[in-house]
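If you are new to this repository, start here. Below is one unmodified record pulled from the training split, so you can see the exact layout before writing a loader.
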Amino acid sequence: GKTESVKALGNAFGRQVLVFNCDEGIDVKSMGRIFIGLAKCGAWGCFDEFNRLEEAVLSAVSMQIQVIQAAMKARAPTAELLGRTVDIDPNSGIFITMNPAGKGYGGRQKLPDNLKQLFRPVAMTVPDLDQIAEVILLSEGFKEGSQLGHKLVSLYRLSKELLSPQQHYDWGLRALKTILKAGGHLLAKHRQQQAPVTAQAEAEIIVQAARVNTLSKLTHADSVRFDTLLRDLFPDINITEIAYKELKEAIRAAYDELQLDHMPAQEAKLLELYEQLQQRMGVVVVGPSGSGKTTLLRVLRSALGRLHLPYKQYIMNPKAMPRQQLLGHIDVDTREWFDGVLTFSARQVVKEPLEQKSWIVCDGDIDPEWIESLNSVLDDN
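And here is the target side for that same chain:
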């Protein structure tokens, strides 16, 4: 909750908060230009993963921050930055968030001492999940928020302890928040159908949201255990699947068209993938080679096309090209921006009308080198 805390504080003060995702592609001049903008307009800048900048950049940046801070302390109207005089707005602020170097995080630097002195360190504690779950549920309109929130947190705690440890499992706050938000959407739908909202109905909605958002990422053995845990925590609830009758028929037609065998297990995965795509902007399809990841996307796209939901697709292999070609770069001399393959696709998607749906598919290995740079894009920040 590092970035969230800075955003919430800025909100309380009525400041504009801008989140920047730092990575090794950013040089001193780019940082200087961002600082000048923040100082001029009085916004707060939150620099995410600050210690992913290169060491040389970190040292030079500390000089720029020192100049801004000195001007603000002296209440000076202007300061010298990048060789020009800049107006200083006393409301601007600079915040950095970072994960410690080492400790299982790749590509992080230790902060130089002269930079450490410019910032007051704030260590984060483990958030109180019960309280967060309760407040979000109540704000989404659940009357039994405190009881349901407590049960959900227990479900996640038990899952973390009892299910197998897989690399892609996440039983943290982010995954919990997704379930709470999804529960809110389902409750709103339930209300639109003029159905009475009883304690039983609320519990059923939460169980449905938990299953939709969790089952898709569990291995087969774990999914059986997870359902058992759900039954223990919510004993008298009927566990129902969300029915997609039209989509199922379209999927079967797509199988025939692509001349593939119809497998019930794969059909279940297709529906799970569809559910995830409804809720998330970023979805990862994980599995060993030859397990049918590309086939899933092909069949689902073909099936959705039959339901008059055509999807445009931009496919690239992020590991087949250098970083700059994928994500774009700034020309060192002219400071002109050149798009990479991924950023170009993103611009094409933005130009489309709102009803046109698009997928940008990065078909290749996940590697912190390129995926870390998408951190702020995929996050709800």
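Two things worth knowing about this chain: The longest helix spans residues 173-192. The chain is about 50% helix and 10% strand.
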